[in-house]
Amino acid sequence: MIFPLLLLFAGSGCAALIYEIVWFQLLQLVIGSSAVSLGLLLAAYMGGLCGGSLLLPRFVSLRHHPVRVYALLEAGIGGLGLLALFTVPLAGRMYILGPAQGLGGLILRGLVAAVCLLPPTLLMGASLPALARWIETTPRGVSWLGYLYSANIAGAVTGCLVAGFYLLRVYDMAVATYAAAALNFAVALVSFGLSARIPHKAAAAPGPPVRAARAAVIYFVIAISGLSALGAEVVWTRLLSLLLGATVYTFSIILAVFLIGLWAGSGAGSYLSRRLSDPAAALAACQILLAIAIGWTAYTLAHSLPFWPVDPWLSTDPWFNFELDLMRCFWAIFPATLLWGASFPLALASAAAPGEDPGRLSGEVYAANTAGSIVGALAFSLALIPAAGTNGSEQMLIGAAAIAAIAAAMVLPGRLRIAGIAIAALLAGGLIFTVTDVPWQVIAYGRRMAPILRGAQIYDQNNPTAVLYRGEGINSSILIAERAGQRHFYVSGKAEASTAPLDMRLERMMGHVPALVSQKPASVLVVGFGAGVTAGSFVPYQEVESIVICELEPLIPPASTQYFGKQNNWVASDRRTRIVYDDARHYIFTSRDRFDVITTDPIHPWVKGTSTLYSKEYYELVKEHLNPGGVVAQWLPIYDSDLETVKTELATFFEVFPEGTIWTNYVNGDGYDLVLLGQASPMPISVDQMQQRLDRPDYTAVSASLSEVGFHSAVEFLATYAGRASDLRPLLTDAQINGDWNMRLQYLAGLGLNSMATPQIYRTILSYRRFPEGLLTGTGGRMDALRTLLPAMAKGRVAPGVRQ
Q1: Which of 9-23, 240-254, 311-325, 395-409 shows the lowest per-residue confidence on average (mean pLDDT)?
Q2: CB within 8 Å of 320: residues ≥ 6 apart
Q3: Residue from 259, 85, 80 nearest 172 by CA
Q4: CA-to-CA distance for 535 and 526, rounded, in angstroms?
Q5: 634 DSSP β-pair partners
């Protein structure tokens, strides 16, 4: 009867992975997506797994049928999974009543994560020890414990791929939850049926726990193994997302490959555990080989994958690139994940004692592994990567594998012990010095690295690139470089800003468009510091009293101030400026402040998680935080996108701001970025009044800021008008709306980033543009100039005379 149980446990793993993805997305909408918030979510989720595995053997009697107990656990998980669809939004409504920042805010975030995640994850963690009690702690029986663990991971692989590539791409988080809960209930029903057919002999009253003499050492080894596994997942996900592009699909692929390795390794380890006289020797060998495998991954990430011979830009088909990314991930990380997977069943076999409660054995080994995983994930994401970088972190991972190997060797007899300790120490000492940083181009160009390097070979010979700054922070990797007299700012494999004319014009427009449309921009909220140029565009406005800047990565403001201070008017040190280091969505959600201008310049929507700053609910939050007459600006890129993605972005914004308008940053008749503008109370824009403001003595610095990027008059500035919601209604009739519950944009954008359709998208949008009668008003001369200039600039016949 073991094979039906393996299938059932695979179903449990599938549902658990779907829940994990959904719950993390839901709770990030409440407590934010900063590294600290993610750490709290991870600690609560894995802490529940750890606690459940320890508590069940202590509080559930051996008299109960193990398969029936397992069925009850699965039914409970399904019920709590459905309940989460209601409890998480309710927690969000309660959450905003408490403190948002400081120690109180941190405690409140942890409390929300614990209340929402601990109940179901405690039941999840209890499922392995519950089912394990049907198996005896003989060598053969212990190997079946390993196979159960392997089956659970096989299900997790399925859940990861089904959720990431189908359920959430096609449907939403509610449907994904229903699917997971249905799977739980199906597993529970079948398990109840099986329990009637599987004999169970009620155990006598338990005596003192039976443990192997070396169990404590084995628990330490498997804890360090868990620490290195989750630490490596954090480090390698950071680096692989740079190389492959941080789409939602990339994260699903990385996680799937990691889990496939654990599944294959745990199956192999289970097979070996019943055939070896001393599985502890194999466990020690696994840790020694892990040091080599970690060194291999570090080498491939720095010297192989960045120069992969197959260019991902050769095809616009996203599925071709998914297959390519899958192969690249296997090449880099599969060997190490195989060994981590094998470690768990070998640890079970090494720690087992005849007559021991199998539930207690599996629960304690699982708890030790999970506790180590929690420490590893939190330590590397919150402390070690910011302190030592990914390079130093990989060296520490090799050291951790060596420590686990030495500890495992300590329980071996005689010469085997000495040999194991010596090999682990010498090997790790040598491997640590082979680890090098990934090339700086990975941080700068990311997934575009191969084609950019090929195209830049001749150019760079005459215009060499000088790296001015390189840093790895708690959330992002950043790089600032200078080439041909222009400075470029990169974040996690994407160009975010530069002093190039085209970029400077967009960065200034993101500030000046809403500031000049607003009648009195006294209070300003800027989402994303970047190079600081957008925030710095508000500095010349004397009526601006406060500038609040939300930035997720603490490294960015000081680095940008050092290298872009002149361009951003030293905004970080302006007395009116306050920088909030938090997820902007979380800050707005919890803030009671209102603003005259809110300008949002997030990372490209194909980056996982960014779609929350392009959702209908986000725009509603922004609108609620506008003062009467307030204005909101939103960056919308049309490069690295397809038409369906852009239509969703436009339709979602116009759903909340039905009188919204579009303003374009163009070059030679083509646009690459758009600025969306919405108003709390839509008002006409007077070209005469705008010019009068620009002519005032107190606006001299504002006029100079505009002139530097080619706008010498209000007419030239307003000639960037590219359309409004009413014009584009026919185009957007079939557009999908991006909402918090479907995150539709990140799935569309992840499929369309190789489309290379920028010119066509821009011309399609302009084809719907009509002269904005009633929106732009003014005297005859200026209006005539606008009527002439709008079509001419769109066709590239007139270009702003950009001056640095």
Answers
A1: 311-325
A2: none
A3: 85
A4: 6
A5: 600, 676
Residue 791's pLDDT band (cuts 50, 70, 90): confident
Tell me the HSE value of 140 on the side-chain side, using a 13 A CA sphere. 1
Burial of 573 (0-12, 13-18, 19+ CB in 10 A): exposed
Count CB neighbours of 455 within 10 A: 11
Q: Cβ distance 580 to 587 under 8 Å?
A: yes
Cβ distance 17 to 207 under 8 Å?
A: no
Q: Are strands 523-527 and 546-551 parallel, antiparallel or unpaired?
A: parallel
SS3 of residue 472 by DSSP: strand
**In which region does residue 740 sit, left (phi positive, over 0), alpha (psi from -120 to 50) or beta (all else)?**
alpha
Write out the DSSP string of 353-389: -TT--HHHHHHHHHHHHHHHHHHHHHHIIIIIHHHHH
Closest CA to 133 of 60, 209, 192: 60
With H, G, I as helix, E, B as strand and everything else as coil, classify residue 697: helix
| Domains of the chain: residue spans and CATH | 1-198 (1.20.1250.20), 211-305+319-428 (1.20.1250.20), 500-794 (3.40.50.150)
User: Which two tokens mark 118?
Assistant: 């601990």
Helix axes 358-379, 318-351, angle to 10 degrees: 130
- Comparing C-alpha atoms, which of 254, 553, 225 is closest to residue 375? 225
Classify strands 494-498 and 523-527 as parallel, antiparallel or unpaired. Answer: unpaired
Mean per-residue pLDDT of the chain: 91
The residue count of the chain comes to: 804
With 0-12 / 13-18 / 19 or more C-beta atoms within 10 angstroms meaning exposed / middle / buried, residue 104 is exposed
Which residues are bridge partners to 599 per DSSP? 526, 633
Measured CA to CA, the distance from residue 233 to residue 335 in angstroms comes to 13
* Sheet bearing 595-600, strands edge to edge: 577-581, 546-551, 523-527, 595-600, 626-637, 670-679, 661-667, 721-724
Contacts of range 729-737, beta carbons closer than 8 Å, 24 or more positions apart: 730/768, 731/647, 731/764, 731/765, 731/768, 732/647, 732/650, 732/651, 732/654, 734/647, 735/644, 735/647, 735/648, 735/650, 735/651, 736/644, 736/647, 736/648, 736/651, 737/616, 737/648, 737/651, 737/652, 737/655
| pLDDT value, residue 33 | 87
Under a CB-based contact definition with an 8 Å cutoff, are residues 128 and 56 in contact? no
Distance CA 334, CA 342 (A): 12
Token digits of residue 354: 């005849």
Secondary structure of residue 196 in the 3-state scheme? coil
pTM: 0.93
Degrees (nearest 5) of the Cα angle 630, 684, 517? 45
Q: Quote the Cα angle for 188-189-191, to 5°.
A: 65
pLDDT in tens, 204-234: 545 566 666 788 999 999 999 999 999 999 9
Rounded Cα–Cα distance for residues 640 and 329 (Å): 23
Q: How many whole angstroms separate alpha carbon 420 and alpha carbon 92?
A: 52
Sign of the torsion angle spanned by Cα atoms 55, 56, 57, 61: positive
Q: Cβ distance 596 to 629 under 8 Å?
A: yes
Distance from CA of residue 721 to its chain's centroid?
A: 34
Q: What is the pLDDT of residues 391-432, one digit of tens each?
A: 999 999 999 999 999 999 999 998 899 999 999 999 999 999
What's the rounded Cα separation, in Å, for the pair 195 and 190? 9
Of 238, 533, 226, the C-alpha closest to 368 is: 226
Of the candidates 149, 153, 143, 283, which has an alpha carbon nearest to the alpha carbon of residue 215? 283
Residue pair 501/804 in contact by the 8 Å Cβ criterion: yes
**Within 60-101, where are the H helices?**
66-95
Residue 223 near residue 372, CB atoms below 8 Å = yes
Residues 45-67 as b or e (16 or more Cβ within 10 Å = b): bbbbbbbbbbbbbeebebeebbb
Got the DSSP string for 281-342? HHHHHHHHHHHHHHHHHHHIIIIIGGG-SS-GGG---HHHHHHHHHHHHHHHHHHHHHHHHH
Pairing type for strands 546-551 and 577-581 reads parallel
Q: Name every residue whose Cβ is closer than 8 Å to that of residue 707 and which is 6 or more positions away in sequence.
A: 803
